[in-house]
Design brief:
Blueprint lengths: L2 H12 L2 E5 L3 H14 L4 E7 L5 H10 L5 E5 L6 H4 L5 H19 L4 E3 L12 H9 L4 H4 L4 H11 L24 H15 L6 E6 L2 E6 L4 H6 L2 H8 L4 E4 L13
Parallel strand pairs: 1-2, 1-4, 2-3, 6-7
Antiparallel strand pairs: 5-6
Helix pairs in contact: 1-2, 5-6
């Protein structure tokens, strides 16, 4: 059976769903397929807003939800001790808190089933938040239908979903070494730092923070562009970084997990 058809069949079985929404490629694909399959009144998007999310991602998510039934939940991630101290298992504790709020909000709106955007590929990497979702009973229909990230992008393009080529992003805490004390100011600074590169047309970017050093991770094809724009170095220093380096390995998802 075609995987898209299998996903639609699974959604049909649920009849009415709430979707934990971030505006990324995965959750936006799931939202659009759910809307096509179940109709607007049977789909609720829930957007969690907190310091872990870049301002650009938040603005884009809100724009995508403009004509969709949705609610926003304010999240104080720094109130979670393991998040504030950037513990190795911070994602588990943070996700447990966030998804508990999502479930409560969904049930308050009479939505029994809560879905997330996990795909098949997520099961093969370090994702402690997945365990929290399993414990809470969050459903992951795309992973259950064995949809990979590549397939989600291909189906999204076929269906005309604008996020088909949106680069993967992650919680801003992932830019810091584990066991680093996080603050609102530190998270905002790395958000502003990465926005500098977006202005150059570089969207797949991580600014890894190590004390006073900003380690820039981009795809190797963008090395020359980074080097050519020396003004970005000065802008980063204006944000409070003393040293700026370009990682010659290129961008590596979850690089702090590979130590």
């Amino acid at each position: 059976m075609d995987k898209l058809h299998a996903l639609k069949q699974r959604l049909t079985d649920y009849q009415k769903v709430a979707i934990a929404y971030s505006g990324g490629c995965d959750s936006n694909f799931l939202l659009n397929v759910a809307l096509q399959t179940l109709g607007e009144k049977n789909v609720l998007a829930i957007l969690c807003v907190g310091d872990m999310m870049s301002r650009e991602d938040l603005a884009e998510a809100r724009a995508l939800l403009k004509d969709v039934q949705h609610i926003e939940i304010p999240i104080d991630v720094l109130s979670v001790e393991q998040f504030a101290h950037n513990a190795h298992d911070r994602c588990y504790h943070c996700k447990k808190m966030i998804m508990s709020k999502v479930i409560n909000a969904a049930h308050a709106q009479d939505f029994k089933y809560v879905l997330d955007g996990k795909n098949k590929d997520d099961e093969g990497v370090y994702r402690p938040g997945i365990q929290a979702c399993l414990e809470l009973g969050i459903l992951s229909p795309m992973a259950e239908c064995q949809l990979s990230k590549k397939e989600i992008r291909e189906y999204s393009k076929m269906l005309g979903i604008v996020t088909y080529d949106k680069p993967a992003n992650a919680c801003l805490a992932s830019r810091f070494d584990y066991d680093t004390l996080l603050t609102k100011e530190k998270l905002e600074r790395v958000d502003k730092a990465e926005a500098l590169f977006h202005q150059l047309g570089i969207y797949y970017i991580r600014v890894r923070v190590q004390d006073e050093l900003a380690r820039i991770e981009v795809e190797k094809k963008d090395f020359a562009k980074v080097i050519e724009h020396s003004e970005v170095v000065e802008a980063l220093k204006a944000l409070g970084f003393r040293y700026v380096t370009l990682d010659l390995n290129g961008i590596t998802s979850g690089s702090y997990d590979k130590k």
